[in-house]
Write a structure and sequence with these properties.
The protein is α/β, with parallel strands linked by helices. The chain contains 5 helices and 5 strands. It has helices at 15-25, 38-44, 53-61, 77-84, 121-129; strands spanning 3-8, 30-36, 68-72, 89-93, 109-113. It has a 5-stranded parallel beta sheet. The longest helix has 11 residues, at 15-25. It binds [cytidine-5'-phosphate] glycerylphosphoric acid ester. The site of [cytidine-5'-phosphate] glycerylphosphoric acid ester has 17 residues, from strand 1, helix 1 and strand 4.
Amino acid sequence: MKRVITYGTFDLLHYGHINLLKRAKEQGDYLIVGLSTDEFNKDKKNKVCYFDYEQRKHLLEAIRYVDLVIPEESWEQKRSDVHEFKIDTFVIGNDWEGHFDFLKEEGCEVVYLDRTPDISTTKIKNELEHQ
Ligand code: C2G
């Protein structure tokens, strides 16, 4: 069984996220999502989410492509996650191109997928504010 992992905040879940998760699952048989915690978002990613961690986790767990959701609490956990969860492939959007190539040293394939154009959580927030 080929095991895949990806990470993200996934706030205000939208079709760009779904496109990513669908393609990530297509890389293997089992998809784990490292979901950024509220603390990690606030302290390290400078993001304030509309939905809190439990609400975002609930949404992700309802997606057919997602097999397991784990907390993402630090930038550094990826190396240990890859070993702990016996990951074959790491997947993320190409806005992160090159940032996680170090995972290849852990024997993990690294795949950057094209982002879905013209949709983002920030865009949704901005357009709602200016309605
Ligand atoms: N994404 C996408 N297309 C979009 C928007 C997002 O493919 N239009 C992808 C991103 O590239 C990412 C995933 O959906 O792979 C989740 O997006 P975010 O929640 O914005 O993820 P991010 O904040 O970049 O977190 O350690 C890695 C970070 O936690 C990634």
